Structure formats: structure tokens, C-alpha cells
Amino acid sequence: MKDLLVIRLKHAPDESAIAAMNEDFSDILIEGKIKVIKPTPEEIANKEHLELKRIAFAFNRRDMAGCAN
Q1: Cβ pair 7, 61 in contact under 8 A
Q2: What single DSSP character describes residue 67?
Q3: Residue 66 CA to chain centroid, in angstroms?
Q4: For each of the chain's 69 residues, which pLDDT tens digit applies?
Q5: What pTM value is reported for the model?
Q6: Exposure winner among 10, 30, 54, 56, fewest CB in 10 A?
Q7: Are 44 and 68 in contact (CB under 8 A)?
């Protein structure tokens, strides 16, 4: 979704899980933090799994290849 990577989940992570993700995955963020969000306007317009919870972050995309090894 634009500059954010949005991941849909059945259950939203609690605050301690979000804090741990932000610490563990800070190297793949362009800026900001991983956060729980509501459906984006695009998802609402397309009625894309509005019942699911979401986390979103500005993913740097260049380090993805390193995650697969």
C-alpha cells in the first residue's frame, strides 16, 4: 500500500510483541516503527478482508534477499 508493507493477521499483536518486532527488525525499516493499523482507504474501497487485523511498516525492500538465506 503505497510506501507501506501491510500484513494482514487474524489476531493483532499486543504492545510487547510490537515492541519486540521493532527491536528485532529495525534493520529492515526505512523509517518509523512497525505499528497496528486500521484498513487502508484502498482496502476499504476494495473490501479487502476488512475483518482482519493489520500491521504496517516502511520496508526497505533491499534487505529481503538476505532474509531468504
Answers
A1: no
A2: H
A3: 18
A4: 678 899 999 999 999 999 999 999 999 999 999 999 999 999 999 999 999 999 999 998 776 655 544
A5: 0.80
A6: 10
A7: no
DSSP 8-class letter at 30? S
Evaluated on CA atoms 38, 15, 18, 30, the torsion sign reads: positive
CA–CA separation, 63 and 69 (whole Å): 11
Q: What per-residue string of b and e applies to 42-52 under the rule 16 or more CB within 10 Å gives b? A: ebeeeeeeeee
CA-atom Rg of the chain in angstroms: 13
The angle subtended at Cα 8 by Cα 64 and Cα 53, nearest 5°, is 140
